[in-house]
Specification:
Domain At3g05675-like ankyrin-like: 218-422
Number of domains: 2
Pfam families: BTB-POZ_ANK-like
Number of helices: 18
Pathway: Protein modification; protein ubiquitination
Order of helices and strands: HEEHHEEHHHHHHHHHHHHHHH
Oligomer: single chain
Function: May act as a substrate-specific adapter of an E3 ubiquitin-protein ligase complex (CUL3-RBX1-BTB) which mediates the ubiquitination and subsequent proteasomal degradation of target proteins.
Organism: Cicer arietinum
Low-confidence stretches: 1-11
Mean pLDDT: 86
Structural class: mainly alpha
Length: 441
């Protein structure tokens, strides 16, 4: 036969054409479905090993329907359409013109399973190329993870985007992200910055999986430098507001910038805590606290100023928590000083924040986790109880005489102080007696 005649014969073969068909493919399911597809053995044998074996002279059970060979294929009802599409693909795979045929990830994945089972390398390769190139929905990704790995090397390119990344690549992207997340881009890029901050925190979080990144000294150093630059910008903004102390915060301008800095500082505390490098931040916040409180106290009570006060309290709560639970060790004088700066401010600011939340339509921006207020109160109590008893008495005396006695509630500190003070002489006298006995022996 002339080669041109053979190509014409291939082109004229159309699935379902009974007049030229010489083989019937029966797709059958357990539910009793039995569909006949009128096909052409030349197409099937050329493109699929399964059909080549079934239609060979070596296959003893090939049935004859009239003048046609018959091949039965049993499948699940849910896979029925994939088998039909697979057989249709056998008629066009010669031209490799498959890009418009897949109709989505789910369909391509189903066809891939059929192609692997029926041993059709061309369709396997085509479906792998498609699945490797397109985006996946989350549910599709989970399905791919169930189906593709057992297929081995032939389907391996599909999983390339899911493979673990080496630590060098993870480290590089973390460093790039932390630099961006601690910068001050234009307001139009705030969403990008917030997304970077979320992902950085996620990379360091231990949940069902281990953290993506284990920080080494180089990473910690870079994070410290980024935080120092962030704090430097915050200090410059603070100095500008502090030097203009004759005008209120709401009149001074730059409120969005100042608020942005506080939001970033609150976030960066999470990163520093996970990396266990809070000390420098706590020291910087301590040094700036007097100016911060003074600026905020003169700020007025507009919604935007109240929100700034709230953001500052968020940062202060994380600093105080680090001090209270020994993450960062400060000398007694500094611990007492930080209490004297932030206790009075917080007890006055909280009623103002609560009132604004209740009365202002835009108060949705002021929502604050109730656990944060509880944690802040616990930190105050813990720091107080670690001070010398005389300093405790001074702070508790001031608290009991204050109109804002309800928050923070220092009742626990008061109870512990009363007990310690009452039994102190007896405890110490017993210790002195034991010491005398020890020395006499």
């Amino acid at each position: 036969m002339d080669p041109t005649d053979k190509e014409d014969k291939d082109v004229t073969c159309v699935i379902g054409d009974r007049s030229s068909s010489d083989v019937v493919v029966r797709l059958r399911t357990q539910e009793g479905r039995d569909d006949w597809l009128y096909c052409h053995s030349e197409i099937l044998v050329k493109n699929c090993k399964y059909f080549a074996d079934r239609l060979s002279d070596n296959w003893p059970t090939c049935q004859i329907l009239g003048s046609r060979n018959c091949v039965d294929i049993y499948c699940q009802e849910s896979d029925f359409d994939y088998h039909v599409n697979f057989i249709r693909l056998l008629y066009i795979v010669i031209d490799a013109s498959l890009d418009d045929f897949w109709h989505g990830v789910t369909n391509a994945l189903g066809i891939l399973q059929v192609a692997v089972h029926l041993q059709c390398p061309k369709i396997v390769a085509a479906s792998v190329n498609y699945l490797e190139a397109v985006t996946w929905e989350e549910t599709e990704e989970e399905e791919i993870l169930k189906i593709v790995p057992p297929m081995g090397l032939q389907a391996e390119p599909i999983l390339a985007r899911l493979q673990p990344v080496n630590q060098s690549a993870i480290k590089n992207i973390f460093l790039s992200a932390i630099r961006f997340a601690t910068s001050s881009p234009p307001p139009s890029m705030n969403d990008l910055k917030s997304s970077a901050q979320e992902q950085l925190e996620y990379m360091l979080t231990e949940d069902d999986d281990a953290p993506l990144l284990i920080a080494d000294d180089e990473i910690k150093l870079e994070v410290k430098q980024c935080v120092n630059r962030l704090f430097s910008g915050f200090n410059n903004s603070l100095i500008h507001l502090f030097c203009g102390s004759t005008e209120s915060l709401s009149e001074a301008g730059n409120i969005p910038l100042f608020q942005s800095y506080l939001t970033d500082l609150s976030w960066v505390c999470q990163i520093l805590s996970k990396l266990e490098i809070m000390r420098d931040f706590v020291e910087c916040w301590f040094d700036a606290s007097e100016k911060i409180v003074k600026v905020l106290e003169q700020g007025g009570s507009t919604t935007e100023v109240v929100e700034i006060k709230l953001r500052a309290i968020e940062v202060a709560s994380k600093v105080l928590e680090a001090i209270a639970y020994g993450t960062v060790i400060l000398p007694t004088a500094k611990r007492l000083q930080v209490l004297k700066m932030w206790l009075p401010f917080v007890r006055v600011a909280k009623p103002m924040i609560d009132s604004t939340m209740m009365n202002c339509e835009s108060a949705v921006l002021l929502k604050m986790d109730g656990e944060m207020w509880q944690s802040l109160e616990s930190s105050f109590v813990s720091i107080i109880l670690a001070l010398p008893s005389g300093d405790q008495a001074e702070l508790l005396t001031e608290w009991l005489g204050n109109e804002h006695i309800r928050y923070p509630d220092l009742t626990e500190a008061f109870e512990v102080w009363c007990y310690r003070s009452k039994v102190a002489r007896r405890r110490l006298s017993l210790l002195e007696e034991e010491d005398v006995i020890t020395h006499s022996i």
